[in-house]
Specification:
single chain, TIM Barrel, eight-stranded mixed β-sheet, 9 helices
Amino acid sequence: MAEGYIHSTESMGTVDGPGIRFVVFTQGCPLRCQYCHNPDTWKLKEGKKVTTESLMKKIKKIKPYIERSGGGITISGGEPTMQLDFTLDLLKKAKAEGLHTAVDTSGFVESAKFKKLLPYLDLVLLDIKTMDDLVHRDLTGVSNQKTLNLVELLEKEKQPYWVRQVIVPGITDDLEKMKEFAKYLQRKKYLEKIELLPYHELGKHKWENLGLEYKLAAVEPPSEKKMAELNAVFKNYKINIA
């Protein structure tokens, strides 16, 4: 039985993988994304300490709903790979129950460590903040190299995955860079789809409550027209867009 720190759970999630999903939001994250809507997940031990067994008891209660919808369990964050043993144990228990499993990750993890999770994963939700390493460093505080290395691992291991990117006006919405991103993803065999997610301000108040400076305070969410334009890029490259 493994113990770990979590921020919260969602018993009927519908946006973190296929079907209805039980979502575990783990505590702790090595990134400091400027648009993070859960900055209260950053510090590991500020979360609630739980066991994987206690989480499985909750999951089993809604298992019929999950299975009928073609859903499963998703471990998100924070960054779930910061608590690798805890995440691994929960995935093992979920697979033992016959549940579809997914992990939502920034990819900021050594590939050799992430590989330990693969035998118990059906799907990886990979957040690629941007292909531009300099922009990535400014936006998140870290390089994107580990994330791109993880893409290569997923391809090598024939692991199905989705790619997600948040569209932040003036930062990640450049049309030419998006075309480069599409070219990069075009020949990936195990990429099932990409989700472009419009930036929103829902976490702004959390930053203020924590006494943190919200650097994107002046940024407005992207227009529907802009999102359609960027989504069209991937359709042109024959990439499945959500």
